[in-house]
């Protein structure tokens, strides 16, 4: 067991990742980091590769450690022991893991070193194979605190895995509202990005992954094309489904209506360039991109799933079933043609947590468990 932390010393926290690609969990940790000091001395640890965001943070002079102890999906007990020794040498008080494999690695190493483990469940709970379910439950039981993005996921974890509700707390996703702000006239931004300056333009900022359901947007564009409407869309992001989506757009005759922009950093101007935002995902923990769009005061059209309703409430005008491309087409058509319709899609009363809010909450949690 580690010696008690010296009085008045900053808490030492390791944000643990396998790698840090462009994603919500990574953006969350990077967003709260500047607001944690001086009470918390945080650093980022990547167990396989840095990833794009890890490289950005390292280039910016932030404390990022690459410790290639987990090169494949099989966890080595020796690697866990080595990481636990590093935690002990560095005097780490809290290991804060963000993804499933990082949970497995981090909880085990934290217990060996005497550090407190926080399991941050960034996704809603789906069906799990038996082996994954058993391992996940062991991680939950080994954590000092479990964080979720919504009250529904908190309740599901407590009921499905028999975890006391007192150990589970909602820490919603958060944005930097100093960066994500509305703009009046976005034509200059569009010009700088090479986008049409005077057309109604919608889009999304999300990985090109099947779960993001970009095919629904392409199908909606094809439906509208048959009706004589040709709105233009921007897909900001990259991923395993890019080639498939490009081919899908070609097959549906809407290739020229879509800008496949790829990964873009910073993402702020890409939000500010849009007239409205679309997110057709099959599931989300709590989409950071949705919060960023709301902070930029964009009208939003989103799938009716837990992660979105937790932010927008049940009565938002822009909901559609993620399998209903025809309904999505109707919403896009209305928002494209009518400024009043776009106005109705503004979520004026949605609570948008900020990184400052999240950092205050995390500092309290860290101090309670360390």
CATH architectural name of the largest domain: 3-Layer(aba) Sandwich
Mean pLDDT: 94
Distance between the termini: 12 Å
CATH level-1 class of the largest domain = Alpha Beta
Describe the structure.
The longest helix has 15 residues, at 355-369. The strands form 2 sheets. This protein has a 7-stranded parallel beta sheet with strand order 3-2-1-4-5-6-7, with helices on both faces. The protein has 2 domains: 11-174 and 354-369, 3-Layer(aba) Sandwich (Rossmann fold), CATH 3.40.50.2000; 187-344, Glycogen Phosphorylase B (Rossmann fold), CATH 3.40.50.2000. Helix content is 41%, strand content 16%. By secondary structure, the chain is an alpha/beta fold. Strand 11, helix 11 (288-295) and strand 12 form a beta-alpha-beta unit. The protein contains 15 helices and 13 strands. The radius of gyration is 21 Å and the shape is elongated.
How are the SSEs ordered, and which strands pair?
Blueprint: E1 11-17, H1 24-32, E2 40-46, H2 51-59, E3 64-66, H3 77-90, E4 94-97, H4 100-113, E5 116-121, H5 130-142, E6 145-148, H6 151-160, E7 168-170, H7 187-193, E8 201-205, H8 214-226, E9 232-236, H9 242-251, E10 258-262, H10 268-272, E11 276-279, H11 288-295, E12 300-303, H12 306-312, E13 319-320, H13 325-337, H14 339-344, H15 355-369
Parallel strand pairs: 1-2, 1-4, 2-3, 4-5, 5-6, 6-7, 8-9, 8-11, 9-10, 11-12, 12-13
Helix pairs in contact: 3-4, 4-5, 8-13
Outline:
With 370 residues, this protein is α/β, with parallel strands linked by helices. The chain has 15 helices and 13 strands. The chain folds into two domains: 11-174 and 354-369, Glycogen Phosphorylase B (Rossmann fold), CATH 3.40.50; 187-344, Glycogen Phosphorylase B (Rossmann fold).
